[in-house]
Amino acid sequence: MLSRVAENIFWMSRYIERTNIQLRILRTYYIASQDGVPFVKWDDVFRYYNQGMPAEKNMSANEVLNFILFDRDNESSVVNNIFRARENARSAQDHITKELWQCLNDYYHFIKDKALQKQLNLGDPVSVLDQLIKQCMLYYGIIDISMFRSEGFNYLNTGKYIERLLQIINSLNMQIVRTNGEIKDSMDIVSWRYFLVSISGYEYYLKSHSGTVNPALIFKQVLYEMHFPHSIAYSIGQLNRYALRLKPESLEESFDKLEFSIGKAAAILKYNSPGSDIEAQLALLNSIESNLIDVVQVFNKYYFGSLVH
To answer: N or C, where is the chain less crowded by C-beta within 10 Å?
Structure first.
């Protein structure tokens, strides 16, 4: 497979995984605000998705959601994610299925539909977010039943799990900072509960811990629980699984670099147990994130070359 095609598939996958996680987080924030427990300010959400630039004072939920979902001038917007995923898919059409290309093309035209933005502005953001999330679920389903299990499938999954890891690490990092990693009042309980909902981890947590909200147990689940598909341990395991499948088509030096960088991230997770120490938790997350960035750099240097996406 040509390096540029592999890169297109890798980034197509990253953009959709990023979109899916962002949409679920935004949906959780909005529902929390409607339930009267706005543990995150919309001004802060705007700042995060606007590269740290401050928001206008007292921006409404709808204003922030419009900016994040539909604003083409916002580099981090969902519509731009979908556009870039579609363009990468277009460049790799000979190596993905017709159904997958059609899915991404339909998603792009769907999010551009002015009726969707009108629906948001008329006060129905949850339905809009649900429709966009369903488009992501359709994408995942089409990959599962139609994508051939060849080299492109392996690049698709390495991109997917790298992006998932980076997004989950960032989300957990912000949650720890937001609550200082503890529960001081009822608002902190709600905050941790909604955090689990945002990463599809609340039901799993309840099955294991009988409804007791404990930040240390949540941290343990998100980092180490191999049966939880959004955990760091599970995602690193899957990243390693699909990277190993690239070995037959890789140059020896390239694969050695890739295997070492992923193995280093896995070792950092395996041999560190920060417990409930906040500084140690944040240091561990930052260390894993730094090593994942090294993995991306290995892909760029030894598999793709450096291109703008």
So the answer is: C
